[in-house]
Specification:
The protein is α+β, with helices and mostly antiparallel strands and about 210 residues long. The protein has one domain (about 10-175): Murine Class I Major Histocompatibility Complex, H2-DB, Chain A, domain 1 (2-Layer Sandwich), CATH 3.30.500.10. It has helices at about 55-80, 135-145, 155-170, 185-205; strands spanning about 10-20, 25-30, 35-40, 45, 90-100, 105-110, 115-120, 125-130. Strands 4-3-2-1-5-6-7-8 form an 8-stranded antiparallel sheet, with helices on one face. α1 (about 55-80) runs parallel beside α4, α2 crosses α4 (about 185-205) and α3 packs antiparallel against α4. The protein starts with 8 loop residues before the first strand and ends with a helix. The relative contact order is 0.18.
């Protein structure tokens, strides 16, 4: 509700991955203050809002396509080692909100087959299991994601600083698009999300559900 002064500004992203018999499907989107900003369909990512100039955006598109192709190849390799004949669906929902009083809230949640799987506690840069009861794959994924700066400190910085600064620029511009210099990092986080999904899916497929 951009017209409501009490409503927070928000930048949110949703990214889905579905794996079945070694084949991967990808889709998702991002929105800035309620306006669709990016769309991911298969191997194609589209910039709906012109947040990046054409040359920078062309490089971003190539990076996304290359990653997705490599990810798909990895899944096929895992499937040969341990075939799974049922569908696995992962979803990442993440972003930040900026409230009228200047405070902000960032979040990152992962579900597996529509059940809470992992979440990222932004203030402490720690991953937490959300799966009900003991789940060896969730435990293993949590341990793996805690090993790397990219999936801890870097993610914390993006959600707490970069994401919020995008909204602060949006607020300062009173609804006009702003903060072009920060825009490349927006898709950088999308790529980071895909790498996290790759970790989670890869763990599950490689272990066959038991670590």
């Amino acid at each position: 509700c951009p017209a409501c002064p009490a409503a927070p500004l928000a930048f949110t992203m949703v990214q889905h991955t579905r794996v079945f018999k070694g084949n991967s499907m990808f889709w998702g989107n991002a929105s800035l203050d309620g306006r669709l900003s990016h769309v991911l369909e298969g191997l194609d990512v589209t910039q709906v809002l012109p947040l990046e100039p054409p040359d920078a955006w062309a490089r971003r598109q190539r990076d996304v396509t290359t990653y997705l192709l490599n990810f798909g190849g990895l899944i096929k390799l895992f499937n040969k080692e341990r075939p799974l004949n049922y569908t696995q669906s992962l979803c990442c929902h993440f972003g930040c909100r900026l409230f009228p009083n200047g405070t902000s809230h960032s979040f990152y949640e992962v579900t597996l087959n529509r059940t809470a799987f992992l979440s990222f506690h932004v203030p402490s840069a720690t991953w937490e299991r959300r799966w009900p009861g003991d789940h060896p794959v969730a435990a293993f994924a949590e341990t793996e994601l805690m090993k790397y700066p990219t999936t801890t400190q870097d993610l914390q910085y993006f959600l707490n600083t970069t994401c919020v600064s995008i909204l602060q620029a949006q607020s300062a511009a009173t609804g006009k698009r702003s903060g072009r210099s920060r825009a490349p990092l927006v898709l950088g986080l999308v790529l980071g999300t895909l790498s996290l999904l790759g970790t989670a899916v890869g763990i599950f497929l490689c272990t066959g559900g038991s670590c």
